[in-house]
Amino acid sequence: MFSFFRRKEKRHNPFEQGWLNGLVDIHCHLLPAVDDGSKSIEETFSLMDFLHSLGVTRHILTPHIMEDYPTNNAVFLRARFKELTASLPADRASSLRLGAEYMLDSTFGRRLVEPLLTLSDRHMLVETSYMAPPMGLMGLLADLQLKGITPVLAHPERYVYMEEKDYVAVKKQGVLFQLNLFSLFGAYSSSTTEKAHGLLEAGYYDLLATDAHHLNPLTNLVSGATLPISMEGDVRTLVENNARLFSF
Ligand SMILES: [Fe+2]
Predict the structure, then answer these.
(1) Ligand 1 centroid vs 239 CA: distance in angstroms?
(2) 100 and which of 8, 23, 75, 117 could share a cystine (Cβ 3.0–4.6 Å)?
(3) TM segments (predicted)?
């Protein structure tokens, strides 16, 4: 799928060129010590500084809600979020909101009757296992839509089980696709990078996020990162979409 025979094209460093300026990050793991993301408030501060240097100005924190983290629910995570914002200067605290990244797993049905942590009144960030779809994926997505919530599928490029026909089917159902920014620069496997470029060029993505967990891999990826200049419009459109739907 998504093969490229790109003619030799000029490339730019998107960060130096300001393509990400003003990005409202709708998916990141900056809430400390609640999942596999930031381990401490200090690490969260460093990540915020780093992301600001890339042009990312606002962050919706999206800790995992999944079987692996049984204590993560809206009540617990709201309390941790309050602690974090209380430790920040007012201008920094106001650049943060709390959402969550929901795993479509066997506990998802139960989660839907609990208080929800959505990205907005009508958008929820969801993911699946990387290797295999959950039973009844399309039904789970439809259940959300019946509640008036639009699913935002986190990093579609990372699902090894998804082929072009799957992307078409999920997209056709009205699910929004969120690209992980660093997928474009080899943060994961080479096939993930290839899928990310292919899906971006084919116009599948609606939204953009960092999915930042820790500082180290990101600093390495950013230095020397380049993209073909023809992708500037695609990337800037996603930045604008984020701002249109999720500004605060
Ligand atoms: Fe994530």
Answers:
(1) 18
(2) 117
(3) none
Report pLDDT digits (tens) over 154-213: 999 999 999 999 999 999 999 999 999 999 999 999 999 999 999 999 999 999 999 999
Cβ atoms within 10 Å, residue 113? 7
Distance 84 CA to ligand 1 centre (A): 19
Fold that domain 21-246 belongs to in CATH: TIM Barrel (3.20.20)
The reported pLDDT for the residue numbered 7 is: 56
Distance from residue 27's CA to the centre of ligand 1 (Å): 6
Q: Half-sphere exposure of residue 172, counting CA atoms within 13 Å on the CB side?
A: 7
Fill in the amino acid letter for 123.
H
- The Å distance, Cα 91 to ligand 1 centre, comes to 25
User: Residue 43 has which token pair?
Assistant: 């690490």
Ligand 1 centroid to 5 CA: how many Å? Answer: 31
Ligand 1 centroid – CA 38 distance (Å):
12
pLDDT tens for each residue of 65-95: 999 999 999 999 999 999 999 999 999 999 9
